[in-house]
Design brief:
The protein has two domains: 201 residues, Alpha-Beta Complex (Spore Coat Polysaccharide Biosynthesis Protein SpsA, Chain A); 83 residues, Serine Threonine Protein Phosphatase 5, Tetratricopeptide repeat (Alpha Horseshoe), CATH 1.25.40. It is built from eleven helices and ten strands. Strands 1, 2, 3, 4, 5, 6, 7, 8, 9 and 10 form a ten-stranded mixed β-sheet that branches. Helix 7 packs parallel to helix 8 and helix 9 runs antiparallel to helix 10.
Length: 298
């Protein structure tokens, strides 16, 4: 059986997926299978994938889910035989030693449940952001507190997850859009992480990116709160930690949404914060400012 199951879920990426596949096949670590799940593409995605003659590639055409990534990833998991799961979007690119670095670390320490790395963001061969962490080296340990405070960005296309750890938690929650954030959030409560502060993945920005969607952002914010509630219901955090996390993230979400001018959602999250921490004067000030903007139409 292969050591790693690499997973790509795709839809209408015929113009991009070929480069992604080549970057996976060019890895210095070669003990992997490559599971590609197509979400009902209507372009030439299948032809591009089938043009690669490599027995490690397993192409599955799935009925259209309209981007329900948790369902697609669970399907991919059911077709996978590796000891680790690695994910790469069909428009992103891996550095050649990406898998080697992560697998080597997890093989040395079975208390590490998952690994993620820094990223470079690019568009049309122009680098938009060299790093999201601006650190060097690596870290081994718990990242749960950072996640609970919503102070850590984990790009799922960098993830390597130990299969045995995932099996303890069960499948990705298909009531959620993507499921990876929820899974890693809970994993981080139970296992150490191996964080590589070197950009081992190039994340591509283009006009078809779904991650820039405002409606999707609202869904992901809601799912973050759902995961915090899940942690509390499973007694993985205390009532005090639960309330603090809900208040802090609600306030943070409100600030993030101000720039979208979705003032209704901004006030919703400010209200959630103030219901828990009515003394939070900055939230009160923002509520007043946003209410004035709504009245004046600014």
């Amino acid at each position: 059986m292969p050591k790693v199951s690499v997973i790509t879920c795709t839809f209408n990426r015929a113009h991009l997926i070929g480069e992604t596949i080549q970057h996976v096949l060019d890895q210095s670590f070669q003990d992997f299978e490559y599971i590609i799940v197509d979400d009902g593409s209507t372009d030439d995605t299948a032809s591009v994938v089938n043009s690669f003659v490599d027995l490690r590639i397993h192409f599955h055409q799935h009925a259209r889910t309209f981007g329900h990534l948790s369902a697609l990833r669970n399907f991919a998991h059911s077709k996978s035989g590796g000891e680790y799961f690695a994910y790469v979007d069909s428009d992103d690119l891996w550095e050649k030693d990406k898998l080697e670095i992560q697998v080597t670390a997890l093989e040395k320490d079975n208390q590490i449940g998952f690994s993620f790395t820094d990223i470079t963001i690019f568009k049309d061969n122009i680098i938009l952001k060299k790093s999201i962490y601006n650190k060097t080296g690596f870290f081994i340990g718990s990242v749960f507190d950072q996640m609970l405070k919503n102070k850590l960005i984990i790009c799922h296309t960098t993830l390597l997850i130990r299969k045995s750890c995932m099996e303890l938690l069960g499948s990705m929650d298909e009531s959620m859009h993507s499921g990876d954030h929820d899974l890693v959030f809970v994993l981080s409560r139970m296992f150490k992480a191996y964080v590589v502060y070197r950009p081992l993945v190039q994340v591509r920005k283009h006009n078809q990116n779904s991650t820039g969607s405002h409606s999707l952002s609202l869904i992901l914010l809601k799912e973050h709160h759902f995961t915090i509630q899940k942690l509390h219901s499973k007694n993985l955090i205390t009532k005090r930690e639960f309330k603090t996390a809900m208040a802090n993230t609600s306030y943070d979400f409100a600030l993030q949404l101000i720039f979208t001018k979705d003032y209704k959602s901004v006030k919703l999250y400010l209200l959630k914060c103030l219901r828990i921490q009515p003394w939070r004067w900055k939230a009160v000030v923002h509520w007043i400012i946003i209410s004035a903007k709504q009245i004046t139409g600014i």
